[in-house]
């Protein structure tokens, strides 16, 4: 079993990466593999709302010139997904949000029903808003959102400072252990499959 750790920071080895790595170590200690996927620092598009993915049933974003479809493919292969982002003005990094919105809209099945978690790092404040924002898609994609001993936030400014946030790093380790425990139980022999989903009953509030 494998968990994909998405680093939504333009800093490859910054505080978000370190917080995610701490989760990876706890997963590893419990016998669950993990892989990091870095957003990189090349431009990513926002959703153009062209709906080509849905109306043409592409199952991927029609724009293939950035990481969107590669990320979706990696999420699809993984048993669990953790998204991490730095806090920018009390929000996730805009590029991370842009690409995640396209991944989930164009390839819902890559994530639907999986165990997931969000992680936010910041210098001083706004990480809980970032954390909530990152969790929003998961809550409407039938995912199982995994918690920890505290909200999944950690503090640090320059790369490496997050290591000094002992409680934040412990929160990450606890999250990793909780995720491992859930994954093992969901995949154990004789585990109960979930009930089938009802067909979607859309109601667009148009009178
Ligand atoms: C554009 C920008 C906006 C930021 N806004 C906030 C903020 O609202 N609150 C905060 O505490 N830190 C803020 N920070 C600091 C980062 O969240 C912090 O340095 C974080 O550790 C960076 O994570 P990284 O090393 O993974 O990139 C901001 C940094 C940048 C570059």
Descriptive notes:
The chain is of the alpha/beta class. Strands 1, 2, 3, 4, 5, 6 and 7 form a seven-stranded mixed β-sheet that branches. The chain has one domain (2-186): Rossmann fold (3-Layer(aba) Sandwich). Helices cover 37% and strands 17% of the residues. The model has no long low-confidence stretch (mean pLDDT 97). It has helices spanning 15-29, 52-55, 68-77, 94-106, 127-139, 166-186; strands at residues 2-7, 33-38, 80-88, 91-92, 115-122, 144-145, 153-155. The chain has six helices and seven strands, in the order βαβααββαβαββα. A hairpin with a 2-residue loop joins strand 3 (80-88) and strand 4 (91-92). Helix 1 (15-29) packs across helix 6 and helix 3 packs across helix 4 (94-106). The chain binds flavin mononucleotide. Flavin mononucleotide (FMN) binds at residues 9, 11, 14-16, 86-90, 121-126, 156-157, 159.
- H/E order of the elements? EHEHHEEHEHEEH
CATH class: Alpha Beta
- Describe the global form: globular
Radius of gyration: 17 Å
Strand residue content: 15-25%
What is the domain total for the residues?
1
Which structural class do the helices and strands define? alpha/beta
Give the name of the CATH superfamily. Answer: Flavodoxin domain
CATH architecture: 3-Layer(aba) Sandwich
Ligand list? flavin mononucleotide
- Mean of residue pLDDT values: 97
DSSP E strands, number: 7
Helical content (DSSP H or I, runs of 4+): 25-40%
């Amino acid at each position: 079993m494998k968990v994909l750790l998405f680093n939504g920071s333009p800093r490859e080895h910054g505080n978000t990466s370190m917080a995610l790595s701490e989760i990876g170590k706890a997963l590893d200690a419990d016998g669950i593999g993990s892989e990091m996927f870095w957003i990189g620092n090349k431009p990513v598009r926002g959703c153009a709302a062209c709906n080509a993915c849905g109306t043409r049933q592409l199952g991927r974003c029609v724009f293939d010139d950035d990481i969107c479809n590669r990320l979706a493919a990696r999420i699809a292969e993984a048993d669990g997904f953790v998204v991490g982002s730095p806090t920018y003005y009390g929000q996730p990094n805009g590029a991370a949000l842009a690409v995640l919105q396209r991944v989930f809209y164009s390839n819902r099945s890559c994530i639907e029903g999986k165990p997931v978690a969000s992680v936010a790092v910041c210098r001083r404040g706004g990480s809980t808003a970032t954390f909530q924002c990152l969790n929003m898609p998961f809550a409407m994609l039938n995912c199982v959102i995994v918690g920890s001993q505290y909200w999944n936030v950690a503090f640090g400014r320059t790369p490496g400072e997050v290591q000094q946030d002992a409680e934040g790093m412990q929160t990450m380790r606890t999250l990793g252990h909780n995720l491992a425990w859930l994954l093992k139980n969901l995949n154990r022999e004789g585990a109960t499959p979930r009930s089938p989903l009802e067909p979607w009953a859309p109601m667009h509030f148009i009178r």
